[in-house]
Amino acid sequence: MTVKDKNQNDNMGQELINSFEIDYIFESKPINRFKNKPTIEIIESKLNDLKTKIENISNCELKNNAKQIVFNDGNFKSPIMIVGEGPGQKEDELGKPFVGDAGQLLNKMLSAINIKRDNVYITNVVNYRPPNNRKPEQAEINRYSEFLREHISIIDPKILILMGSTAMEALFGSKIKISKERGIWKEVIINNKTYSVIITFHPAYLLRQADQKKYSWADLKIIRKKIDDLNLKI
Ligand code: URA
Question: What is the pTM of this model?
């Protein structure tokens, strides 16, 4: 390579760099990868803002037919976040997720792997009871999944448990089948952060299909192992 060729290459390289229109690619300052954890007050205020945002949703058949919003339950500092489908009658009356029959089974499932319900954080894909407990429609799942993603970002869990196909579809779309995807650790990226996610059957489904409980038990043991491997305080 002649000196002239080398200069020409350098010029082309510089032009390319200029075209990126960013001026920090060669910065020698180390990147701070240990971002400060938000304080409890900040998390609470973000949760309140999100709840208000959902309460202000307009043109929503779910909201228009429900008694009240069902936003969350449990410990917002928990490393474990559970996402169900949507409130049923009891949840609509009490304003809390998973307080009916499915909730009772959820409590038993958690205690089977030594977890107290109060030590996890619980929410649903849709925050208003669907009329006659119908499954939320695709458009509703899509609309509420924006809120769900924000919710996950705020809670920032180490483990995300999606219960049932609606929760699965909210984050992974409707092209996959829960029977194939359950019990496998996956990753989902929200707001530039990667979360460990597992899909498992919904307790309401297990109440109807008791023979599927063996798969649920297998999933619960996988979840317990992850908690132990990550040494999560729960
Ligand atoms: N089923 C759900 O998916 N969520 C609840 O809160 C109750 C039942």
Answer: 0.86
